[in-house]
Amino acid sequence: MYGDRGRVERMERSKTELSGASDVGEHSRRDASANPVGVPASAVRAMTTFSAADEEKQRGVRRMKLTATGLLLFVALVYVLAKWASNEGAGAWANYVAAAAEAGMVGALADWFAVTALFRHPLGIPIPHTAIIPTKKDQLGVSLGEFVGENFLSEDVVRQRLRSVGIGSRLGAWLAEPDHADRVTAELSAALRGALTVLRDSDVQAVVGEAITRRADAQEIGPGIGKMLEKVVADGGHKRVVDLVVSRAHDWLVLHDEQVMDAVQGGAPGWTPRFVDKRVGERVYKELLRFVTEMRDMPSHPARGALDRFLNDFAADLQSDTETRARVERLKGEVLGRGEVQDLIASAWTAVRSMIVSAAEDERSELRLRLRASLLSLGARMAVDPKLQSKVDSWVEGAAVYVVTTYRKEITSLITDTVASWDAEHTTKKIEAHIGRDLQFIRINGTVVGSLAGLLIYTVSRALGA
Predict the structure, then answer these.
(1) 185 with 357: CB under 8 angstroms?
(2) Is the pLDDT of residue 25 over 50?
(3) Which stretches within 201-238 are classed as H helix?
(4) C-alpha to C-alpha distance for 332 and 189, rounded to whole angstroms
(5) Does residue 227 register a pLDDT over 60?
(6) Which residues lie below 8 Å from residue 122, measured CB to CB, with a gap of 6+?
(7) d(CA 169, CA 175)
(8) In 3-state terms, what secondary structure has residue 126?
């Protein structure tokens, strides 16, 4: 018992320091039954219910308690017997055994007090700085949150940890595997389908229509159309359109000669003879057919040259003539304001969405095949390209640092709020079930070490006294 007083004082001092550190933020103690906003209900239930595994651990704690208590009773019995033997004149050995047993009892009782004080008041007596876990639960949660924030969510720690992992090279090697690329492709396709399914067509159509209209209103289209037309004429791209138009016009005239001549005759004055109107109609039809035929068959026809000059002049006016540009802008506004154009925009989105969803669902679609090939190519490059790996690592580090520095308070508050939402009694029982068995070894070790220390001290004392 001579050497255990200092150890008891040290354990008491440790508990006092723990409870004193937990006193920081005492004013923020909350009701243990509360469920703060943002704390998942599953986290609260996890600390208020006992699972089968918890029950098994609690039975293990009870067995270890019986073992430690049994050892205490054993050394107490040894102490009584040794004292009796010493009084009966058994010899000096009885005093050694009694000293060892006495110190063992002191060590066992001191450690019993220390272990019990963590979870409840020893013997039900409200001794200060006991029942630390149930009474200081919220403050321990605050301290735990601050500890995590300072030591795990700091910028230097996050960067150092991510840099040591080498995410770029690992991700590249992982993506380079065809099975992994298939998995990522399937997950991205499912996410794309889900996003397009959640979006309401009316909302997207309204946004797209407004964006197109706003962009068209904000930008003048005349000069752009003029430059494009000028380039088309310079490259001769319009000639195929002219060829198509005159060819179709020729075919139409051949098939509808009677209608053309009737139209000419119908426009003649009423006082002219009918045979004159007929001859005029025939003449006009023949001249018109001859003109179209020559224009179709002669690339150098004067009408084609006139058309080229007209298009060049029109392209120049679109770029420089104020009146022409203003008329184009008015026409643009009228076209965009028509309901048919807005319906066209809406139908275009519906068609695009349907096409994307179908492509995302089809494993052999061009979209998924190209996505898979891109992932494999990216993975192969990332696995061997140090520059690309460095870029990926930098992006990941930057994103992680931004999250932990911006939302560190929210992350740590999740810890403190979750601990505050736990019921004190159930929390104490659950913690004791998980670590109580190991704590009982402290009692056992205190008994054994106390006995050895008592024996050593008694031996040294006798030797010095002798």
Answers:
(1) no
(2) no
(3) 201-218, 222-235
(4) 38
(5) yes
(6) 112, 113, 116, 130
(7) 10
(8) coil
